[in-house]
Amino acid sequence: MATPESDNFLRLLEARRSVRKFSPRRVTPEEASVLERAFMLAPQAGGNRGLRCFPVTDESMIRAMAETGRLAYGERLAKIGDEEVRSRHAEYGEDFFWFFNAPFLLVAVVRRPPLYFQEIPDINANLVFGGHLSAAMAVHNALLAAQTLGLGGCCLGGPMLQAEEIGKLLGLDHREELSLLAAVGEPAERRKA
Ligand SMILES: Cc1cc2nc3c(=O)[nH]c(=O)nc-3n(C[C@H](O)[C@H](O)[C@H](O)COP(=O)(O)O)c2cc1C
């Protein structure tokens, strides 16, 4: 039987849409702490495999991440010989680096699978270890929390194409890697009910 809580929860899910345009208002430290807490409350594969929530509020760092990603993506595309493949990527890539204007980024950082996972033959160690899958659950928690605060946001998987370059910029440990990101802020436009 539905309960008032389940109805409210479904309404929250129904109202959620990705937001990619933000007002200039900064995310407050109190809001950021709700987002980080929601992120860390998500379940993690294996109980705790070192998922880390890396908040980025510094505008110049956010711009540098988008720009580093865009340049590295361009360099990778230039190495593809097939014109058709290159042009399809160029079109798709438009979605990857728009976040340079986001007021706040939550970066999910995951631990790389240890050697004993990587050495099992014929498996995808990343999938089985579950770091990136856990990151996706955590990012969604944070995005739903954003909605309860009147904020909006969008998952960003595209920047994982440049995980090494962006990871270096953030100073990640060699045992860690970049996973899903969430751009969050006050929506530039309110949606009509
Ligand atoms: C794992 C994942 C990765 C995503 N990566 C990107 C991305 O790189 N850039 C982007 O603009 N949107 C990205 N999105 C957002 C999707 O495009 C969006 O959720 C989808 O189009 C459905 O729209 P909605 O969120 O408004 O319901 C991603 C979503 C998910 C779940």
Which helices and strands, and how do they pair?
Blueprint (H helix, E strand, L loop, with lengths): L3 H12 L13 H12 L11 E5 L2 H20 L4 H11 L10 E8 L3 H4 L6 H5 L1 H18 L3 E5 L6 H8 L5 E10 L8
Antiparallel strand pairs: 1-2, 2-4, 3-4
Helix pairs in contact: 2-7, 3-4, 3-8
The structure holds flavin mononucleotide.
Q: Tell me the series of helices and strands, N- to C-terminal.
A: HHEHHEHHHEHE
Give start-end ranges of low-pLDDT stretches: none
Please give the CATH class: Alpha Beta
- Give the helix tally: 8
Overall description:
This protein is α+β, with helices and mostly antiparallel strands. The chain has one domain (22-185): NADH Oxidase, CATH 3.40.109.10. The protein has 8 helices and 4 strands. The radius of gyration is 18 Å and the shape is globular. The protein starts with a helix and ends in an 8-residue tail after the last strand. Flavin mononucleotide is lined by residues 17-18, 20, 95-96, 136, 154-158, 180. Flavin mononucleotide binds at residues 17-18, 20, 95-96, 136, 154-158, 180.
